[in-house]
Design goal:
By secondary structure, this protein is α+β, with helices and mostly antiparallel strands. The chain has two domains: 40 residues, no CATH class; 150 residues, Nucleoside Triphosphate Pyrophosphohydrolase, CATH 3.90.79. The protein has three helices and twelve strands; from the N terminus they run ββββββββαββββαα. The strands form two sheets. Strands 5, 6, 7, 8, 9, 10, 11 and 12 form an eight-stranded mixed β-sheet that branches. Strands 1, 2, 3 and 4 form a four-stranded antiparallel β-sheet that branches. The longest helix has 21 residues. The protein is globular, with a radius of gyration of 20 Å.
Length: 221
């Protein structure tokens, strides 16, 4: 998973609610840190619902690129492929920092989200995506981060068992698990899934799995 400190703005599909204020004034940001990720200090003010303007406020902004996440699903076996890897942000909690997650990666300049999904499925799980279906797009933490998520389900032929994947040059160490959909309830109940994109994708699959199986299982795997 590569870092990208840019982000895409102005998603045309996201329309404001009626009568939502639209004006924001932003002073030139001050770069506080630039490494694997970046942090800016931003001064801004915006229009208020009751009219007029807010006072000028100062915020620290975590700057990272857009991410693409994809849940690999085999409708013929009715199974998903999840990756297990170490996450520094989970250190110090009452659970293991090795988390179960769906495939994910950062969007590089010039890449479409679908291209990222296909690339990362190969790098992180050794999978070929047969078809992609968009689940949703969302801001995971808009109060302080620029990150934007494109979430997909990918139709795959799941292997018989998991393996070890990831790019050495990116210090990735990912163990994949092939899990029957019927066993995911237990994973939820035991608190084995604590990643937001994974929870959203698995809940979506709960609602749509039978339709997907009806669509794809007409043909041989």
């Amino acid at each position: 998973m590569k870092s990208n400190d840019g982000h895409n703005a102005g998603k045309a599909w996201l329309k404001p609610l009626p009568d939502t204020p639209g004006q924001v004034e932003v002073r030139p940001p001050q770069a506080l840190h630039k490494g694997f990720f970046a942090v800016d200090r931003v001064e801004l003010r915006h229009e208020l619902f009751r009219g007029g303007w807010s006072p000028w406020m100062t915020r620290e902004l975590f700057v990272r690129g857009d991410a693409v996440c994809v849940l690999p699903y085999d409708p013929w076996r009715d199974a998903v492929v999840l990756g297990e890897q170490f996450r520094i942000g989970a250190l110090g909690r009452d659970h293991s920092p090795w988390l179960l997650e769906i495939v994910a990666g950062m969007q590089e300049d010039g890449e479409d989200p679908e291209q990222v999904a296909v690339r990362e499925a190969g790098e992180e799980a050794g999978l070929e995506i047969l078809s992609l279906r968009e689940i949703c797009r969302y801001h995971p933490s808009p109060g302080g981060s620029t990150e934007f998520i494109y979430l997909y389900l990918g139709i795959v032929h799941a292997p018989g068992s998991g393996g070890i994947y990831g790019l050495d040059e990116e210090a990735e160490d990912i163990r994949t698990h092939v899990m029957p959909r019927a066993g995911l309830e237990q994973a939820f109940e035991q608190g084995q899934v604590v990643n937001a994109a994974t929870i959203i994708a698995l809940q979506w699959l709960r609602l749509h799995a039978e339709a997907l199986r009806s669509e794809w299982c007409r043909t041989s795997p």
